[in-house]
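The protein record now logged underneath.
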Amino acid sequence: MINKRLLVKNLLAHNDENSFYDKKRFIAIGQKEGKAKFLKHVCALANSNPKNNSFIVIGVEDEDNKIVGVDFFDDSKIQNLVNAYLDNPPAISYENIPFPDLPEGKVVGLVTIRSNGKVCALRKNIWKYYGGMVFFREGSISMPKAYGIELKDNNADAVANIELHARNNIELTLDGVIDFINNRHKDLESNYKVFKEQFVVCWAGTQKKVKEKTYFSRVDIELINEQVKLFYSALDEVTISYDEHSFTTIEYVQLGLGAKQQYFPLEKVVITFFDNGTYQIQSDLMFKPPQYDKKTLCHLLNANRALLQKIEQKISLKASEKADLKQLPDTYLICYLNGFEEAKEYMENARGLLKKSYPKIYKSLKQALRILRKVRYN
């Protein structure tokens, strides 16, 4: 069983990026250019490593390998994105790796790519890349290749050695459990469960009971053996259940216009553990968005636009306008889910305006964009 934090450290020990490993300060797959560049690197790494895993580490400074972290990214549908844009798509996973010195909510992203042994190519046009383009790694650069396309095994031994030195042990597991409960979440209700005598899942959060049902907020869930953060949210409500073979979460989101707020189930995730030392994560989107009158939503779009224009022009907001601004992330999300696709662009444009002046609303906006991303990829 591989300890993913050790794996990241071992990869970073290769100070320069190479043909099986790339590093990024961040990725922006919510935008067309960022999505295209990400797909290019995935394609190139898959083609350059037909016999072994290849990796992208996210949240690291390029010049000095300083670990700065990125926001927790829980998009289990990233495989759908790769399948939609690539022919012969590799198997891909995105995992969130906690590091001790990072702020709460920040992690290192680890993208693991496994080729299916066939030449991977862009399926259709995206940004400035054309359908049919094939990419390979030349050193640390992902380059297009139009001729002499042949998959060669150059890195299998090197990657196997790196993964071997990232194997987990009992000491690392016990240290991880103690650190999770006693240090990082000493102010929260914390629990752990051992599955199949080898997997340890820890979770922490603020509990509340509603009609004999227990909900968690400020939730953090980690698979300690692999040092992978399975779930993190400072805002949403989550239910947790488990038996001897599986661990299940259902995430709820609070949505509504004005004071009329409701909780809607968003996604169910089941982690099933097997006797042979493997596990499987199955996610199912449960979300059914609320529907509203189109004229009301048009009015809200215009009102939001006016608020953002005032912020851009540095005009002070009235108390009533500040109250409306708190609802902006929800109203934009509801508008998008009711067919106003331009609302996503408005949300992206609002990020820069809100980040410094209204950090709490900015945080809610990022959460709304995360929900939107899940729904779109599904």
Remarks:
- The radius of gyration is 22 Å.
- The mean pLDDT is 92.
- The chain has ten helices and 17 strands.
- The first helix runs from residue 4 to 13.
